[in-house]
Amino acid sequence: MLSNRSMLNSVVIPQLAYRDVGEAVSWLCSVFGFKERVRIGNHRAQLTFPGGGSLVVTQGVPEQRFEGYTCHRVMVRVSDVDSHHRHASQNGTKILSPPKDYPYGERQYSAEDLGGHTWDFSQSIADVDPASWGGDLRET
Which end of the chain is more exposed for a tag (fewer CB within 10 A), N or C? Predict the structure, then answer.
């Protein structure tokens, strides 16, 4: 794949709409730990996340909610979910579910950002065979 300084290096790049790109970028950086990479006018921005994650913030109307959640979610792997949760909580983030350990070896919490998007933050706490919790590993 050709490298392009104008494009993020990630292979999968979520694009989320917010009414105010500048406000969203500031919030996502200060509360969730993203770093702004490129700003395109006042309608678009590229953000990176430590460890290799990427996100594009676009100007628009966030999607409607369905049964209390947006019809999409973004999952971000972090090294310390409790510390990340504490920081997000202290900065006024709406926490949808507090940190919890799951049988598939992850500790996760969910939050809603200022645009109404749902975010899941996940920390690996064990290496678990998917068959032990009902999963079916298709790729090794």
Answer: C
Total Cβ atoms within 10 A of residue 118: 19
pLDDT digits (tens, 9 = 90+) for 110-135: 999 998 888 999 999 999 888 888 88
- Domain range for 53: 12-59
pTM for the whole structure: 0.79
pLDDT band at 61 (very low <50, low <70, confident <90, very high): confident
Say if 140 falls within a structural domain.
no
Check: CB of residue 9 under 8 Å from CB of residue 53: no
8 Å CB contact between 121 and 76: yes
| pLDDT higher than threshold 60 for residue 71 | no
With respect to residue 33, please indicate whether it lies within any of the assigned structural domains. yes
**Domain assignment of residue 22, yes or no:** yes
Tokens of residue 14, six digits: 């979520």
Q: Is 1 exposed, middle or buried (0-12, 13-18, 19+ CB in 10 A)?
A: exposed
The torsion angles phi and psi of 84, rounded to 5 degrees, stand at: -65, -45
Number of domains into which the chain is organized:
2
